[in-house]
Structures are given as structure tokens and as C-alpha cells.
Amino acid sequence: SIIVAGGDNDKLAQVQKLINDNNLIDKINTSKIENNIKTSLVEKLNEIKGKEVSTVGNYNGIPYDAETGEELYNAAQAMLKKYGSSTGLCATGVSRTFAIAFDIQMGGHGYQWTGNMNKLVEQGSFIDVTSEFKTSADLANLPAGAVVTWDETGGSSGGAKYGHVCVADGKGGEISDHAQSSIYKSVGGSSTTYHVYFPIERPVIAV
């Protein structure tokens, strides 16, 4: 299917309805338009009709499946209720969250979750939207179920060594192995590279 932002998706659906409701292709075929023009028009209309309208919604114009996002956020809350809160185990918390939400197993340290998420991008269930969130301050605007990963900084312990991963709560905060009211702006005591992923459909295959 074609994944497009909500506005363009709506326009495609409207054009397809217009073609079908008014039998435009049949009318063109039986018209007195010159054959070469007629052929070109019919080919273009059939191309438009053949496009698959995406069911993916959008968040501020960015493709985003709210149902999957809420499912992941709710699973993060359920994970905390089941296992309790801790610190220093962000990747464990997110691994448990994905297992609860989608029954898939993914491991690794925080920074290794970038690889996990990139595999889900390849499978078509998430998209990398990092370029839409140019500064770490923008992370406060993420919708529920967005996933953020942070690279390690080369330190000897904590986030500097292992990076970070979390699930956004849609209210400016995050859940990893515990909930907090704001998303990290940096890990390991210094600013480092982060990656942002939006769900666009429910993942079904472990990576």
C-alpha cells in the first residue's frame, strides 16, 4: 500500500470515488475525444484507481498509527504494574513492553535497540522519523507509542556505556523500566545521537 500523510490520502480517496461514481472511464471510452488523448486519459485514470488507499493515520502530517501507538503505551504501563519500577534497565523494560504488546522478543542494550527498530522499519511496521524532530527539545512533542533510542557515548557505565531506549507516553514523558514526566534530552552526561520511530502498523514478527 502507499503510505501517505492524512491529507493526501483523503484526496486520493476522493478522486477514486469521483472516478467510480461518475463512470468516468466508460464515458471517456465512448466519447468523441481523439483516440490518442482518450488512451492517455484512460491509462491515467486506471492508474489512479489501482492505487491502494493507506489506512495509516498521521500525527502532525507524519504517518502514525494511533491504535498501535496506544497499544504500545498501554503495554508499557502494564509492564510497570507487573514488574515494578527500576533504574538502569531501560532495555529490559522496553523488551518486556514489546513482549506484552506484540508477543515478540527483542533484546540488547539501549543503543542496540536502534538496530531492533531499524529491522521493524524494514518490515514495514515502524518508520524512522528522526529528521522531523531536529532537537532533543522536540522529543517532548512525541505521540504515545513513539520509540526513542540513544547511542552510547563511549563511557564506562550507565547511559554513556549502554545508551538508552524508551516509549513515549504522549504527554512529554517516557516509560522504559520506569516512568518519568520528561523524555531524556541526553544520556551519559552529554548530548548524543538519538533516533525516533513511529508505529504505522502492528508488528507481528520478532527481529
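[next item in queue]
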Amino acid sequence: MKKLSLILAALLVGTSLIFVPAAATDAMGADLLASADVYLDFENESYANLNDQAYTVVSEGDTYFVDGRFGGAANIFSGANYLTVENLTFGADSYTITAWFQVLSYSGDPAMFGNKDWSGGKNPGIVMAYKGNSAIFNSALGARDEGSARLDVEATIPGASDEWKHLAVVVDRATNTYTVYINGQPKDGSIPEQGTGVHDDEVNGYPFNIGEDGTGIYNLGNELVINYDEFAV
């Protein structure tokens, strides 16, 4: 129960629900996890999706497990493995992506997760990229707008890279706003006025990958050794 309470409190950091009683936090956090399309806790050395089975998770390469922020965690090593969430698309809907992460080594601006070709920021889709003391959330609209509406927000990452940190990306397409949280600290931005397209690559159909961009090859030239725990979409 202690583990669940801590996880739920962390997931609620980005929703302005920090100052609530513990029992209420548990209830609201449980609802949040239950409503996620994808929830990976990596317990029992498994990357299975605990929620909607329409979104199956597969490992490209062998994924190993290590001690996590809460129990077990998945280790991603660029060039060796990453996880793919099958059938997951964002369309023009609002969405939230949240996870605990621990970076052990990196070079360049490797993709932490995403569904786009990160070789170009205007390519359609989304990506979260790691740059040491900061993380960059990049999105560009889908094929209907040929990736013409690009936006980026860079959020500072405090502390040593090998410390566990909490990340949340909240995209509200109704109000055309998005927020990136690192350890509960927000960095806000606004989607451009022409932002009416989708956050997917409708032409290439890249999947949503964890530990890579949509192509699955970007990090071959950008090192990333990262552990993930409690990943939810």
C-alpha cells in the first residue's frame, strides 16, 4: 500500500492535486492509473501492459530488469533494445505521458520515447529527447499539415543524472496548451494556432517507442542507457 500511495502521489504531481489528504490522493491516483491506456510497472520482470490489452508492448532486442524507483524497472540500452507499444496513436486527442527515469549514460540528444523520426524536428509526431541537464519535448503535426507546426519546450532536469526523476507531459488539445513537469516543476508552452492536426506520422505510421524515436534507429548514433519505472500513457 505504501508503494501504491507513493506512485499515485507522484502521478498526481502534474495535475495540481498535491495538497489533498492521503486517502483522496490514493483514490484519485487509482482512477488515473485505471484510465491509462498503457501502464507498465515492470514488476516480476515483465513489460506487459497492465491496462488496455489493445496496446500490446513488445521488446525489440532483449530487455533486462533492474532495481527501480518502486520495485522493478526496465533497462534500455541504445543499440541493444527498446520497447514498442503497438497500435498506440494520439490523433488530435489530449493525452498525458508519465514515468520515473534514471539515466546512466548518454551522448547527443537521444530519444527517451516518441513516435516520430527525430532526425528532423519538423517531422510529424512527438518525441522526448534527453540532453543531460534538460529534456526537450518536441511535436509537429501529422500528414495533414506536413509537419509545418513545430513546437519545442526544454525543461531543466535538476540533480545528478543517475538520480531517479519523475517526468510528466500533459497535452490539452482543447485549450492548445501543453505542460512538461520534471519532479513536479512545470514548464509551459502553447501549441501554435494552426495546431489542428494529429500528433502522429500518418504517412510512415511509426509506432510509439520507449527508449527510441519512432524509427527505432535514432539512438544508434546517440547513446542512451536509461532505466524506466511506472510508465503510463
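[queue empty]
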